[in-house]
Amino acid sequence: MTPRSALRRYTLVSFLTWLPAGLMVAVSILLMTARGLSLIEIGLLSTVFSIVTITLELPTGGLADVVGRRVVLAVSAAFTVAALALMAVSTTFWMFLASGVLKGVARALSSGPATSWYVDTLHDLEGHDADLKPGLARGGAMESVALCLGVLAGGVTPLVVPRELLLPLAAPPLLGAVAAAVLLVVVVFALPEPSHARRSLADVLREVPATVAGGVRLSVGHPLLRRLMLAAAGSGVALAAVELLTPGRLAELAGTAEEGSAAYAVTAALGFAGSALGSALAPRAARLAGGSARGAAAGTVLTALSVGCLAATAGLGGPAGLVTAGLAYVVMFAGLSVAGMLCLELTHRSVTAAQRSTITSTSSLSLQAGAMLSNLAFGALASQSSTATAWVLASVVVLACALLFVRMPVLQPAVLAGDAERVRSA
Asked: Is the pLDDT at 48 greater than 90, yes or no?
């Protein structure tokens, strides 16, 4: 395998991993609303999803470090198929809850193994001094392209599906299940796993907890990783604020759930296009800012200002409301991608292959924790006060996270190597 072929496989898997999620973006909240769920119930479901993901993040990350990346990615795809197929036919809170649990398991399994596979493969081919930013940026851009195309397809589909066949809003989950099935096939046949020593079930059960415990000690004990985990939580706050509250507002502007789905699809697609742009520009942003930490700080500030713009224009209606939301989405997701991509590079440079997926899962856990708390807080705040108030609070929290990158601890490979050795011996 060559670096070019490894990058092609990584970007393909990145695209397919996020395509099902993209298909669901525009319709998930509207589908639950159409089937009788309240905003508070929807916020509770989002919280359950986050709890499941948080609970399994570290064990599944440790599992990927022990048994390999491909197996874990394949199981994740299978859970996604089951979750979205169930969601398409759900009619009660409890059915949606079961679907959310399955989605949480799939999300936990998928966070980390693909990037870990690419970084490990590139290190094998080019050595540990290989430049990670271009490949990680390409993978992040493909994730955003998948979300952009998926959200457009998912938003338009309800408008063209005959109502006599099924509820139009249920069509995108079915398409997502099909896309996840394609991912399963690709992972099994196109993502070769580096050779691993054979392990018995007892060995696996023993090694995973040790890997998880060592990874947690490393992420909490190392100043650089600790700040990166807090920054990920801030990203979760920003994402929860817009994903929970924007669909309902756009549905009100558009007039109907189906038209609101299409409006949100266009708005979210613009945001994901901005995300793809931010991922592609992340290496250049780091150069212009004078380092990855400063580039991530700039991206975080841009994100906070964009959420603040959403709050400031929440009272606008008609075309003006749609245009300002679209512009804010583009800038916000671009800022999130710049910050996220540079944080990802700093994270991967801070660990070795022995705990790479575990540490990446810890970052995802932090993001989910921020989103979980925000879903509860913003849902209640928007119901009792206003959407604008919730967005103001989110903007302030994200802006405060930019301070995490001030005087960021210097990366010290020798110290990190010692930390990794202690993790392996844990």
From this structure: no
| Residues 251 and 30: beta-carbon distance below 8 Å | yes
Predicted local confidence at residue 421, as pLDDT: 46
What distance, in Å, lies between the first and last C-alpha atoms of the chain? 33
Q: How far apart are CA 170 and CA 173, in angstroms?
A: 6
Q: Domains of the chain by range and CATH?
A: 3-424 (1.20.1250.20)
Give me the percent of the chain exceeding a pLDDT of 90.
18
Tokens of 359: 């540490």
Helices marked H in 255-355 — which ranges? 257-289, 292-312, 318-348
Pick 68 or 334 by higher pLDDT: 334
Tokens standing for residue 45? 């479901």
212 or 179: which leads in pLDDT = 179
How far apart are the C-alpha atoms of 24 and 19, rounded to whole Å? 9
Q: Tell me the angle at which helices 93-110 and 39-67 cross, rounded to the nearest 10 degrees.
A: 30
pTM above 0.70, yes or no: no
Cα–Cα nearest to 95, from 112, 78, 82, 109: 82
Q: What is the DSSP letter of 351?
A: S
Which residues, in sequence order, are CB contacts of 394 under 8 Å at separation 6+? 237, 238, 240, 241, 307, 374, 378
Instruction: Decide if 155 contacts 246 (C-beta within 8 A).
Output: no
